[in-house]
Amino acid sequence: MTNDIKVDYESGFGEGFNIIAGPCAVESIEQMERIGEFLSKLGIQIIRGGAFKPRTSPSSFQGLGMNGLKILKDIKDFYGFKVISEIMDPRHVEEAYDYIDIYQIGSRNMQNYSLLTEVGKIDKPVLLKRGMSATLEEWIKASEYIKMEGNKNILLCERGIRTFESYTRNTLDLMSVPIIKKKTKYPIFIDPSHGTGRKELILPATKAALVLGANGVIIEVHPEPEKALSDGMQSLNFDEFEILLDEIKRLRQLISANQ
Ligand code: PEP
Ligand code: MN
């Protein structure tokens, strides 16, 4: 169904609208097998899954760490996915190298300069999320820490910012798409899950991302969101994700028919 969604991985996602999907956190091999099989059938080429989880409370599930990355690698090898996963500690950058295709730097670490410097030294793409209180200028400057070390394969991801609004978990600043496109050459992704915190807003946010010309979205999907160990309220179940793909496919056809 989504085979027409082109992933231009080698050239840094130059073309198409890329839908990255997977759970907030890798929880078990069984969970990842279910998700891997489902996403692979739909033609999804990049799977997400957090192994090192930045949680507000130290008593919340912290992720499976290196064991989580090993599970991701098994799923990747079986289905041929590319894997994106977050690294929080500069000491893990090298250790994770064989398991991760795209390093994610999370919102909370956007200005962790020693981490940025470390991922700047590797030859794999880095997806740099916007800090939840960062201006666009600060975000772009943070990307320069990666570039200065030699790694120019940078993807930027808008994931919403803190405002006085509390209906949504964050306020998704969609204007970052045209602004980042104007100010940088980097692909720009939208994270409608963290950007809204509400599963019913993921589809409208994804539609908006497509219409604005974003390079793609990163969406949390879980077989049983109500049982997820993190971020269940902003994760789509399998049926909801299939509906989203159908709707996005329809919208893409509409856009290309009118171009
Ligand atoms: C995530 O993608 O799982 C995550 C923690 O995102 P953010 O850094 O945007 O909060
Ligand atoms: Mn999450």
List the helices and strands and how they pair.
Layout: E1 18-22, H1 29-41, E2 46-48, H2 66-79, E3 82-86, H3 92-95, E4 102-105, H4 113-119, E5 126-129, H5 136-148, E6 154-158, H6 176-183, E7 188-190, H7 192-196, H8 202-212, E8 216-220, H9 238-257
Parallel strand pairs: 1-8, 2-3, 3-4, 4-5, 5-6, 6-7, 7-8
The structure holds phosphoenolpyruvate (PEP) and manganese (II) ion.
Order of strands across the biggest sheet? Answer: 1-8-7-6-5-4-3-2
What is the mean pLDDT?
Answer: 94
Radius of gyration: 17 Å
Low-confidence stretches: 1-12
SSE pattern, N- to C-terminal: EHEHEHEHEHEHEHHEH
Ligands bound to this protein structure: phosphoenolpyruvate, manganese (II) ion
Percent of residues in helices? 25-40%
Classified by CATH, the class is Alpha Beta
Summing up helix and strand content along with how strands pair, one would put the structural category as: alpha/beta
What is the CATH superfamily label? Aldolase class I
Cα shape: globular
Count of all domains: 1
If you had to describe this structure to a student in words, what would you say it looks like?
The protein has 259 residues and is of the alpha/beta class. It has a single domain, classed as Aldolase class I (TIM Barrel), CATH 3.20.20.70. Helix content is 37%, strand content 13%. An 8-stranded parallel beta sheet has the order 1-8-7-6-5-4-3-2. Strand 2, helix 2 (66-79) and strand 3 (82-86) form a beta-alpha-beta unit. It starts with 17 loop residues before the first strand and ends with a helix. Mean pLDDT is 94; it is low at 1-12. Phosphoenolpyruvate binds next to loops.
